Amino acid sequence: MTAGSTSTPREPDPRTAEGTEATAEPAMELLVHGVGGATPQDMLEDPRTVRVTGDGTAGIRRRTDDAPDRPLDERRPVREAYSWSNLTSGNGARALWLLLLPFMIANVAHWMRPAARGRRRAHELFDRLVRLIALSLTVLLVSGACAVSLDLVAWQCGGDPACARNTSWLAFMAAEEGGWEHPGRRMVLAAVLPVSLTMLLFWLSRRTWSAYESASPPVRARTGEQASALLSLPGFWYGRGIVSRLRAAHTAAGLLTVTVALLTAAGPHDREAGGPVPALLGGLLTGLAAAGGLAVIVLVTRHGRTETEMDEKPVPRPVRLLPWGAGGLLVLSAVYAAWERPGWESSGQLPAGWIFPFISVLQGVLVVVLALTAHRMHRSVPAGERGALAGLGGAAVALLGCALGGVLTGGVVQRFADWLAPGAVAGGLDGPIPGPPLLLSWQAAALPSLLGVALVAGLLAAVGVYRRSRKRAPLVPDAYPDENCEPHPERSIRIASAVERAALTDAAPRLVGWMTAVALVLGVVAVTGSQLTGRTPGAAAEQAPALLAAYADVSQALGSWLMGIGVVVMVAMGRRAYRDASARRTIGIIWDVGTFWPRAAHPFAPPCYAERAVPDLSWRMGTWVDATGGRVVISGHSQGSVLAAAAVWQLDAPTRSRIALLTYGSPLERLYSRWFPAYFGPRALASLHRDVPCWRNLWRATDPIGGPVGVGGGSGVPPVDREPLRDPLNYGRNLMRPLPEPILGHGGYTSDPAYEEERAALLRRLARGGVPVPGQAGPAGGGPAAVNHPQPGRSSA
After folding, report:
1. pLDDT for 203-256, tens place per residue?
2. Are 681 and 687 in contact (CB under 8 A)?
3. Which intervals carry biased composition (Low complexity) (predicted)?
């Protein structure tokens, strides 16, 4: 069989070729890679592989030489590799998903609730508030598109003959014939952009769900067995109903936003000047739009996720018809706006500019209420199970998502305004055209201050790492007592620096907390300043001291450019991430964490790869155990360890009794337990250890992502965590290792001798029914402990 063949080999036969019972039962190791991906050839250490199951997007492969009659070996079981990297990466077009980052962040906030037991109403309120915040982000994005097309292009530039003539593709609007001097008709034409954006998001959401998230979880009866964790619920990884309902609601909201923009332009003219179009008609359409908005809010807040069973109920007919009703109202509003109105001219900014301050205030209020709700839930949680930021992680992340949405929207609008009529951004109301909404200039002026705080925090962290590394470096050689070599100051400093840099991960909650607080204060200042002064920041500070006035001018201009550059940089980073493996690893840490969670709050967020990967892994383990009666070690690195844990949770007790879990470089406690305590908190991880007693975890102090999980131990059951592995394996040179050993950090776990030791021990324990084997693999030499590096612990800062 040639490499790359897609034929499916038979399962390993538990009998030998002679038909007698094998001396050992079948054993398989299922490898799951982490962030950034790894090829099956690298994981299996063989260039020749064959696909066992799956497709080109995600599949399980095996070495070609692992034939069914291969002799069984406890230390080298049949190895299979699950490759899921194409679920999150691929061609360069997926870089555009980065523009959906605010949606993804809002969706992640949904899963960051405190681990409060009971309190059903508090949980429901938390969910509803997050879904409303997510809905506001959709309205914000479509409003930004309306600001570009309806306000800047159709209303401002189209109403100014000089601006229209200077832009070749708008020259037809400068003509006095053809009807384009009518503002309503220009706006109807320009409405194609936000409507197209809304329908594109709808199409992407529907297409990606069918491609990534429609895999059916394994149906494993839990007779007499109660779900031990939320991730073990049968419907957790199948959210078809909630995604369909939210998609209908957000699509309707986007279309209604365009409708409101059209009505607020034509309505004031009909009420003030009179004319052939009755003002009552505009009022009726406005009332219908308000009723549609109320229906959207009810739909978003009333229906949540159904996890106790697979959500396969058909979407109710009224929900399916809601986008169609919004589209019909949009058509009627377009006819109303395009109606002939003699003497109607566009001047100033579009009257719909009030929507940006309204959205900002609404988001601020929702985030504050969300924070109060989360803090109340957090207070009822035992001290050992509390998450990061005193339970305010979800509110903090939601606020940062809103801030990022405002930056992206403002960046596009302001850069487009400056390109359409140079000077429109910096000049404000005194420029060639009135320019974008005033609030965007204030938000732009606040951006340099926010980035300055982040820069100061980064410098302080760098100085702290430098000082602690120099202090710790003399202790590094003590971690290698078996090596008789002279200390090397430079190498000691490198090792100590790697340990200290890895420890910065534990300070992330404090950084997020400070950034959130600063963002909230600056947001309040931006909204208040824009509404009270009615002027740009530079103009409002003219009477202030010279230094403050200069700072306001520089911040406004610099922030405007930073907003625009930020959009370009995000797209460029996304394209590089999907072409360059090293860049993908850097960006993928946040990206793979965000898209791990199902779309429960925002249907236009990037697709959830775990709704495909978790069922794939559960099906493979379950069917292999059923077919062979053998043992399985599922081996997960980094994010792969999270997928492995989630897949094991989905299995029934008889199947789990044949499963062992081997994790390494795992963020289960260091990241997921702290930020998602309701799903991966200490109580959930302890329940996973009860479900899977054969579990071992490898980690290093130089690893910035992985760490100990902190469960197990006592009552004759070994702890899950092995002592921290040495990194590097050798301090100096020797006859067997003439070159310096590299500092591996987050990678290279499978090359450590401890890996094969723990895998063999797990297989022996499975053979004994999960009972620890006397004399099994013990802890490795403790390099990190010898340099007095504290074991990463939980932080509520």
Report:
1. 888 877 766 666 666 666 555 555 668 888 888 888 888 889 999 999 999 999
2. no
3. 768-777
Domain that holds residue 751: 27-88+608-786
Which 3-state string (H, E, C) describes 712-759?
ECCCCCCECECCCCCCCCCCCCCCCCCCCCCCCCCCCHHHCHHHHHHH
Q: Identify the H or E element spanning 29.
A: strand 27-32
User: Residue 692: left if φ>0, alpha if ψ -120 to 50, beta else—which one?
Assistant: beta
If you search the block for the tokens 């009179």, which residue do you land on? Answer: 274
Q: What is the reported pLDDT for 142?
A: 95
657 falls within a domain: yes
Whether 484 and 413 map to the same domain: the answer is yes
Which tens digits make up the pLDDT trace of 521-550? 999 998 998 888 877 787 777 777 888 778
504 and 640: one domain? no
Residues 506 and 620 in one domain: no
Name 726's Cβ contacts closer than 8 Å, sequence gap at least 6: 479, 480, 700, 780, 781, 782, 783, 784
Rounded mean pLDDT, 644-668: 93
> Could you tell me if 541 and 615 lie in one domain?
no
Q: Which of 170-174, 365-369, 600-604 has the lowest mean pLDDT?
A: 170-174
Q: Which CATH number does the domain housing residue 81 bear?
A: 3.40.50.1820
Distance, C-alpha 430 to centroid of its chain: 41
d(CA 593, CA 635): 19
Whole-angstrom Cα distance, residue 434 to residue 152?
A: 9
- Determine, yes or no, domain membership for 107: no
Half-sphere exposure of 637 (CA within 13 A, CB side): 23
Same domain, 496 and 541: yes
Cis peptide, bond prior to residue 728, ω within 30 of zero: yes
Listed in sequence order, the residues at least 6 apart from 333 whose beta carbon sits closer than 8 Å to its beta carbon are 259, 262, 263, 285, 289
Residue indicated by tokens 């034929």 = 7
Give the SS3 label for residue 298: helix
Q: Collect all residues with Cβ–Cβ distance below 8 Å to 649 and sequence separation of at least 6.
A: 228, 229, 231, 232, 688, 691
In a domain, 746, yes or no: yes
CA distance 403 to 38: 34
The Cα 334–Cα 326 span in angstroms is 12
Q: Please state, in angstroms and rounded to a whole number, the distance separating the CA atoms of residues 488 and 505.
A: 27
The stretch 107-118 carries a mean pLDDT of 89
**Do the beta carbons of residue 561 and residue 417 sit within 8 Å?**
no
Say if residue 527 is in the same domain as residue 615.
Answer: no
A 10 A CB-CB count for 141 gives: 26
Encoded tokens for 664: 């390494």
| Cα 258 from Cα 193, distance rounded (Å) | 10
| Other residues' Cβ atoms within 10 Å of the Cβ of residue 752 | 19
Residue 79 lies in a domain: yes
Structural domains of the chain, count: 2
Beta bridge partners of 29: 79, 633
Q: How many CB atoms lie within 10 A of CB 306?
A: 18
Same domain, yes or no: 491 and 632: no
Question: Beta strand 59-63 with 78-83: parallel, antiparallel or unpaired?
Answer: antiparallel
